[in-house]
Amino acid sequence: MSTHPLAARTAVLISAAGRGSRMGGDLPKQWQALSGRTVLDRAIGAFQGFARIVVVVHPDDMGRAIAELGGRVTLVAGRDTRSGSVRAGLETLDGSGLGHVLIHDGARPLVAPPVIDAVLDALAAGAPAAAPALAVTDALWRGAVDRVTGFADREGLYRAQTPQGFALDAILAAHRADSRGAADDVELAHRHGIPVTIVPGDEDNLKLTWPGDMARAERITKRRNMDVRLGNGYDVHAFGPGDRVWLCGIAVPHDLGLVGHSDADVGMHALTDAIYGALAQGDIGRHFPPSDPQWKGAASDIFLRHAAELAGRMGYRLGNADVTLICERPKIGPHAAAMQARLAEIMGVAPDRVSVKATTSERLGFTGREEGIAAIATATLIGGA
Ligand SMILES: Nc1ccn([C@@H]2O[C@H](COP(=O)(O)OP(=O)(O)OP(=O)(O)O)[C@@H](O)[C@H]2O)c(=O)n1
Ligand SMILES: C[C@](O)(CO)[C@H](O)COP(=O)(O)O
After folding, report:
1. Burial of residue 332 (number of CB atoms within 10 Å: 0-12, 13-18, 19+)
2. Which residue of 90, 159, 209, 255 is 20 to 30 Å from 219, comparing CA positions?
3. Looking at the domain covering 227-383, what would its CATH class be?
4. Where are the domains of the chain?
5. What's the pLDDT tens digit per position in 77-129?
6. How does pLDDT run across 273-297, given as a tens digit for each residue?
7. pTM of the full predicted structure?
8. How remote is the CA of residue 96 from the centroid of ligand 1, in Å?
9. In a mutational test of the pocket of ligand 1, which residue from 23, 41, 82 has the highest number of ligand atoms less than 8 Å from its CB?
10. Measuring CA to CA, which residue among 336, 360, 261, 255 is closest to residue 302?
């Protein structure tokens, strides 16, 4: 939803009447699905909050357009060329009383608010026209078939994008006066003496043209939908009689054991709670109540595996995990690699996503007095990507 002050007084015209012959496929590209929504629906969705949205569609697509978009936008039948389609859409805005229009390709579904706002800012500052573009950064060659035949100077060259913004009356008059056609409305405006301000474009604002563009757009939507969650966990177990302690899934020889309802693996418990925390799913006690006798003496990998599988079912994978054990003894260093490997195996991730380290508390507090072992853990979970 645009909150730009000019949006409520500006029309949007989306040209979507092409056939997408270069893209191919069963449907014209604007009607194809991109991460669960049609390309055109995404392009329209980028302009919520504008005064009016006109969508120009091919006559053959009008039935589908009415079914999917009717009521949300004004639908207009397109023409054989992009310029003709834009002109048809502009005519419906004549007399609307709106001051500006943004003309956008239905085949650019990933335009983001900063690009739209930059165009509106330039118009609000008094520019009669403004459009996003990216400076050409690669060297430019001429070629024939597979041979280089010459070179072009890239200085001052830009790759044009949309939305292209105009004073409505001026661009409508330019279209009415000119039936020669143009690659875009900036070309037509320039031909009619309308100065055009260049504002920054965005590499993600690609125009879907060739089949490979769809896969690139899918990657961009996945990146945008990425959901990173962070959780932490903390646990303590007291020493008691025994000859080993279970830490991060490894039995470490010691002259004491750890006391607990399960195997008292303090490190694994902290990590399990970190994952539940990232998922906002409570803690171990909620999933494995200590009052339930079936968990008495249980190996803690049951808990960690459950948390990792729950994350998977909720659409997340582990980004990384970091466990710190706090004790004077036993020494953790010699066992840290085995702990790392075991935790990774239980969670089904590569060992380099898991860290196990230890510190003493300088003989301070309960861990310093060797009354027990504490552990803290952090986990990141990545979803939507
Ligand atoms: N007669 C036309 C031709 C194109 N467009 C629209 O203009 C935008 C940019 O055009 P382009 O990428 O060339 O789309 P197509 O014409 O569909 O592609 P192709 O040339 O591969 O057939 C697209 O949103 C397209 O739907 C239009 O409204 N009317
Ligand atoms: C308007 C445009 O998107 C600017 O880059 C482009 O010119 C339209 O696409 P086409 O492939 O040139 O028809």
Report:
1. buried
2. 159
3. alpha beta
4. 7-225, 227-383
5. 999 999 999 999 999 999 999 999 999 999 999 999 999 999 999 999 999 99
6. 999 999 999 999 999 998 888 888 8
7. 0.83
8. 26
9. 82
10. 261
- The CA 69 to ligand 2 mean position distance, Å, reads 24
Written as six digits, the tokens of 81 are: 């060329």
111 in Cβ contact with 165 (< 8 Å): no
Distance 383 CA to ligand 1 centre (A): 34
In CATH, 7-225 is 3.90.550.10: yes
Confirm or reject: Cβ of 183 under 6 Å from ligand 2.
yes
Instruction: Tell me the pLDDT tens digit for each residue of 329-342.
Output: 999 999 999 999 99
Binding residues: 235-237, 261-262, 269, 283-285, 359-362, 366, 369
**Both structure tokens of 382:** 């990545």
Dmax of the chain from CA atoms? 95
Closest-lying ligand 1 atom to the alpha carbon of residue 86 = 28
